[in-house]
Amino acid sequence: MDRQVDLVIIGAGPAGMAAALYGSRAGLSTVMIDASAPGGKLLKTYQIENYPGVGTVSGPDLAMQMYQQSIAFGAEFLYGEVVEVTQDKKVRLADGTVLEAKAVIIGTGAREKEMGIPNEAEAIGHGESFCAVCDGAFFRNKDVVVIGGGNSALEEAQFLTRFASHVTIVIRRDVFRGSVKAQKEVEENEKISVIYHHIPKEVVLTDGKVSGIVLENVQTKEQQTLACQGIFPFIGQVPETSFVKDLGILNERGYVIANEQLETAVKGIYVAGDCKEKDLRQVVTATADGVIAATNAFHAITGM
Ligand code: NDP
C-alpha cells in the first residue's frame, strides 16, 4: 500500500527546508525528498552575505544549519528522484515508491542553463563546469572564461580568481545585469577582464579537454578564439519541473504558476522557491516562500 503522509516537500533547498521546518513544527507528518544532498544551490555558493541575521556565512554552512533545523521537529529527509506528481497528490519516485500526500510543496529550484553550442556536451566535466565552488580548484593557474553578466557570473568570477591565473567575463551587451556592488568588485579585481558585445559560438577541445572558446561579436559578427582551459556559463536558469508537466500548472518557460497563498491551480499542490514564476530569486525569498506554502498547507489540511 502507498505510504500516507500529511505533507510531501519535493526539493531540499532553502525553500524546501523552510517548508519542512514549518510543516513539522506545526505537527504535520512531513517528508522532504531530494535526489541530492540537502542544501540545494547553497551547497554551490561560496559565500552568502545577504541572508538577514547571519552576517557573512559559507553556503554549505548555512545549508547544514538549515537542514538540522528543518528536521529538528520530526520532518523526514528521503533521498530519491520524484518522477511524477498526480492531480490527487500521489508522489511517485524513480524507485517505485509512492507517497500519498494531503498536500505537496514543489521546491525543486532551477539548474544552470547550458550554452547550447557545438562541442558543449563533450566539454561538460572536461573543462566546462557550472559550479565554481565545486570545481574551481581544478583550474589553479589556468585561464578561465565566465559567460554571462548576472549576479551568478559576477560572484563566481570573483571566486574563481582564487585559483585561476586569469578570468575573462564575456557578456553580450555593454552592461551587466548583476548588482552594482558585484560589478564594482569585478572592476577592481586585477585578475578579471571583460569582453563586451560577444556571445559564445563553439567550444574548442584538444584531446577531449577544453582548450578555447569561439566568441562572436554581436554587432560585427566577427569571430575570435579565446584560449582557455575552463569555461563557466552562468547565463540563467531552467526550472526543475518536468515531473509536473502534465498538471497544467507551468508557464511557457516551465516555472510553476501559483496564487498569493502559493497554491497552484491544483488544490493542495503548492510551490516555493526558484521554480516559482516570480521576479526575485534569493535565499531569503525562497525560505519565505517555503514558510508561506507550508503554513497554508497546514491551514488547508487541518481546517484551523
Ligand atoms: P541572470 O538572469 O540574472 O543573468 C544571466 C546573464 O546571462 C545575463 O548577463 C544575460 O545577459 C546572460 N545571458 C543569458 N542568456 C545568454 C546567452 N544565450 N548567451 C550569452 N549570455 C546570456 O541569471 P543569474 O543566474 O545570474 O541569476 C539568477 C537570479 O538569482 C537573479 O535574480 C539574481 O539576482 C539571483 N542571484 C542573486 C545573488 C545574490 O544576491 N548574491 C547571487 C546569484 C544569483 P543579458 O543581461 O544581456 O540578458
CATH structural architecture of the largest domain: 3-Layer(bba) Sandwich
Tell me roughly what share of residues is in helical segments: 10-25%
Total domain modules = 2
Report the mean per-residue pLDDT as an integer: 97
Question: Bound small molecules, which ones?
Answer: NADPH dihydro-nicotinamide-adenine-dinucleotide phosphate
**What is the CATH superfamily of the largest domain?**
FAD/NAD(P)-binding domain
Global geometry: elongated
Rg, nearest Å: 21 Å
| Terminal-residue CA separation | 29 Å
Largest sheet: 7 strands, mixed
Please provide the ordered H/E string of secondary-structure elements.
EHEEEHEEEEEHHEHEHEEEEEEEH
Q: What is the CATH class of the largest domain?
A: Alpha Beta
- By secondary-structure content and strand pairing, the structural class works out as alpha/beta
Number of helices: 7
- Could you tell me the number of beta strands? 18
Low-confidence stretches: none
In the CATH scheme, what's the topology name of the largest domain? FAD/NAD(P)-binding domain
The percentage of residues in β strands lies in 25-35%
